[in-house]
């Protein structure tokens, strides 16, 4: 169940990052509300996941999924550039998280 909580936390993390962009410095009420709910959801589910997962695994996985999701949706939804450097960096993030997970086995 901890991995399900971590997955939910990561989804909220992506929503949080994207909604901050739409909140325009907290000047737009709807996106600001979504941002606050996403922060609470992300940290809340992460906390539940940490009840049984080591922090040295759960936190990097959470931030990595949040980072990768934000890069992907920034490209898809916001028209941000998806450069070779961004793609190589994303692969490096995945490799780093995979390394952490393997080291815990």
Automatic annotation (TrEMBL):
Any Gene Ontology biological process: xenobiotic detoxification by transmembrane export across the plasma membrane
GO molecular function annotations of the record: transmembrane transporter activity
UniProt-listed Gene3D superfamilies: 1.10.3730.20
GO cellular component: plasma membrane
Keywords, sorted A to Z: Cell membrane, Membrane, Transmembrane, Transmembrane helix, Transport
Subcellular location: Cell membrane
Membrane topology field: Multi-pass membrane protein
Keyword Membrane part of the UniProt annotation: yes
Predominant subcellular localization, coarse grouping: membrane
Alphabetized Pfam families for the sequence: Multi_Drug_Res
Taxonomy, superkingdom: Bacteria
This protein's record includes keyword NAD: no
InterPro entries in the cross-refs: EmrE-like, Small_drug/metabolite_transptr, Small_multidrug_res
Residues that span the membrane, as ranges: 33-50, 57-78, 84-104
Family: Belongs to the drug/metabolite transporter (DMT) superfamily. Small multidrug resistance (SMR) (TC 2.A.7.1) family. Gdx/SugE subfamily.
Designated name of the protein: Guanidinium exporter
């Amino acid at each position: 169940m901890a991995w399900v909580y971590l997955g939910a936390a990561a989804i909220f993390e992506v929503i949080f990052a994207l909604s901050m962009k739409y909140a325009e410095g907290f000047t737009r009420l709807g996106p600001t509300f979504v941002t606050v709910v996403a922060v609470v959801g992300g940290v809340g589910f992460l906390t539940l996941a940490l009840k049984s997962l080591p922090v040295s695994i759960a936190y990097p996985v959470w931030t990595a999924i949040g980072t990768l999701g934000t890069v992907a949706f920034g490209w898809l939804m916001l028209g941000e550039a998806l450069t070779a450097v961004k793609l190589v960096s994303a692969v490096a993030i995945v490799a780093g998280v995979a390394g952490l997970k393997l080291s815990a086995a």
